[in-house]
Amino acid sequence: MKKQLLASAITLIITGVCNSAWATTGKAADWSYTTPTGPENWGELSSEYKRCTSGLAQSPIDIRDAIETELAPLVFTYQPGTATVLNNGHTLQVSSSGTGSITVPSGDYAFVQMHFHTPSEEKIMGRTFPLNAHLVHRNTAGELAVVALLFEEGTHNPTLEPILTAMPTQTGGLATLDSLNIADLLPTSRHHYSYAGSLTTPPCSEGVRWHVFSTVAQLSTAQLQAFQALYPMNARPVQPLNGRRVQVGG
Predict the structure, then answer these.
(1) Is residue 32 part of a domain?
(2) Residue 99 confidence (pLDDT)
(3) pLDDT exceeding 70 applies to what percent of the chain?
(4) How many Cβ atoms are within 10 Å of 135's Cβ, its own excluded?
(5) Nearest to 248, CA basis, from 98, 73, 114
(6) Which of 212, 198, 246 is nearest to 56 (CA)?
(7) DSSP state letter for 97
(8) How far apart are CA 184 and CA 96, in angstroms?
(9) Where is the signal peptide (predicted)?
(10) Across the strands, what pairs with 81?
């Protein structure tokens, strides 16, 4: 019985860590997007966050001078399912019961969660977008691959609507959606930018494979304002490229 209780406890701990965006083990130091706990000071808030300052392969970046290449297409196998929308104090985090994964040149990665930033953390040739979504995936070795979707103001986005309608206004609030198919957010074209980077929040761990769609999706002004009423600004500034190559293709 003790072994069963211990196994259950370990499972709950692992699940909690995997579904956060992204916490380290133990009690993480408080951080935010504003002074004095904002991005410029993340590296000093905790020894676990030092990579935020010292790292040489950090995200996000301003995508420039991308090298056109024969990138393998991104292959998504998302299925609809129930979903939860969590206000985690930094963003809205969406998890789904539907099976989902992505196949990239380095292998298969299972979908973990999706979250949002305003304005967009990624830039393209200096251009900032009003919103972006990060779709986080993890492989069996614990390595991460993130797909970034960019949004501009335009037509109403029906896939985002249930998320924004249900979003909890209090930190820690959790809402449930009867059905969500994240595949409906994806553009038809798989053309994308690819580079090696990091988490864009503490602990800023590196070794993350980034894939940023070049096709920009749309959402209505009312939808954008609904998110910004909750989070007016939750984006890390772009980081130096430090000689990394950015490829484009697909």
Answers:
(1) no
(2) 80
(3) 89
(4) 25
(5) 73
(6) 198
(7) S
(8) 13
(9) 1-23
(10) 180
Tell me if 155 is assigned to some domain: yes
Question: Which residue, among 131, 161, 148, has the nearest Cα to 233 in the 3D structure?
Answer: 131
Whether 6 is covered by a domain: the verdict is no
Label the pairing between strands 123-124 and 62-63: parallel
Q: For residue 85, tell me if it sits in a domain.
A: yes
Residue 137 scores a pLDDT above 90:
yes
Which value, to the nearest 10 degrees, does the dihedral of the CA atoms of residues 9, 96, 57, 90 take?
-80
CATH number at residue 54: 3.10.200.10
Tokens of 130: 């009003």
Place 63 in a pLDDT band, splitting at 50, 70 and 90. Answer: very high
Q: Respond yes or no: is residue 137 known to be catalytic.
A: no
Amino acid 244 reads R
Query: Does the structure show a pLDDT above 90 at 24?
Result: no
CA–CA distance, 29 with 26 (Å, rounded to integer):
9
Catalytic residue among 90, 115, 137, 192: 90
Tokens encoding 77: 């196998």
Length in residues, the chain: 250
Under DSSP, is residue 126 helix (H, G, I), strand (E, B) or coil?
A: coil
What's the structural domain count of the chain? 1
Per the structure, the complete domain to which residue 87 belongs is given by: 42-249
Q: Which residue has the tokens 């909750």?
A: 230
| Cα angle value 186/188/189 (rounded, 5°) | 105
